[in-house]
Queue: 2 jobs
Job 1
Amino acid sequence: MDHSGLFEMRRTSALVRIEEALEEALTTDSQPGEIARPARLRDAMAYAVLGGGKRIRPLLVLESAALFDAPFDFALHSGIAFELLHGYSLIHDDLPAMDDDDTRRGRPSLHRAFDEATAILAGDALQTLTFDILSRESTHPDPVIRAALVQCLAKASGIGGMAGGQMLDLEAEGRFERSTPRKLSLEEITRLQRMKTGALLAACCEAGAILGKASARETESLRNYGRTIGLAFQIADDLLDAEGDTASVGKAVGKDAEKGKGTFVSLLGLDGAKRELGKLVMEAKDSLSTFGERGRWLRVIAQYIAERKS
């Protein structure tokens, strides 16, 4: 049965709630325990996060939690926390010291729209706001669940996840003293992307399992799904960089080839990367067999990730 049309309605409805929650988190006045929220910093944070986006990460949290009938509002608070952390990562990724991108989501990246110092602080503030939200009782009344969510996201975004993956990427580019650019093997590229991109996507799925108090088997199924769509997401990104146009993608394209970066496309070729993408989508869908028909929306998300145009 084709669920894509029904899912689009479901996704659109969820996106309204996600945007409302993000706006509230980013535009609210100072919270208890805070002294003040400087307007320029708050504006920069809102510019980075509220300027569009597919919201795949909060959608994954929502749909993973829905497998277990976890309350929507708990999943929503967790989901926007993950999206705020994603926003921080994009700000820092665009900085001149990192990928040096002038465009993000079809408009100037944050350090171009504001300035580099403000961009660094906005990223820092988004990261800490993420863990502030996860630690609140409104995210979940059980402190054990909140602690598990914090640990899950911290591991996915830190040295063994996203930050570590970015370091591996920079090292491969020969960015540091006495280092030279080098071609990565498929195993090395896979490890790098599992950390840089995939770890956070996998953590979104695990967050749903935490909120739903899933069994060990169910949690592992969601982890496997998340790891697999994480790689699929990156291959889709690599293909967009190779074949897409700036207007549709919303950021500069062709930069991977220009920098000689090791990607799935550079190693496997366009056709090989597309075959691998299709294989990963099937693996992701198969990993949800534990949930039967309940996993239908996550299966649609896997297909959506592969077919996206931006």
Job 2
Amino acid sequence: MIAVLQHQPETGLGRLEGHLGDLAVDYEVVQTGETLPDPAAFDGAVVLGGSLSADDAALRPARRWIRGAVLSGLPYLGVCLGGQLLASALGARVGPGGAEAGIHSVFLTDAARHDVVFAGLPRRFDVFGWHGDRFDLPRGAVPLAGSLACAYQAFRYGGTAYGLQFHPEVRPHDLAGWRDLPGYRRLLDESGRDWTDVELELARAANALDDLAAHLLERWLGLVAGAPSVREGRPALASASDRATA
């Protein structure tokens, strides 16, 4: 069972929902504004994006939950704000660094070539970005990707915790739902981009982004399947190949 931490209803799983369904992976969506369940009840955690800042007081319980979960060995995949929360929970600085909105290229580090999740991706590929804040690396973290405008686009902490600055999950109709969020409208104004232009970029990149989301999620779920169960005596999540042959 995967815990999906969601901060705002407008920022959901997006295309990751379909991939989880295709892989028959059970998950539970948990709202971070509510009482958070024991991390030991889950095999892994996916933490979504949102228009809040990582240091927002409303996210203090989520930061504590994330720190305890990751330090206990729970596999973690954080998207944009989820990646920033991972960095913040592990003691790294997260703060303003210039708005980045729309499709742009990221470049993998040498370490990414040997990383279980990122191996097999091109050294340069396009992602969808939508952020005004950015993270420094926690001590001991491994940088995996960066862009011309943002030094750290992805990192790994330990063997199974990943923070992404970009959004592999966002589809055009997901983006349309962000128009009503003041923080997202303000971010786009700061970036100097136009909604229509960004929507068209995202639509044109849909197939490539779908492939990217599937690659990252499936590789990360492979780590989840192989990780020691956080809850004593509980078998780890079955791998996709195990489910296919069961």
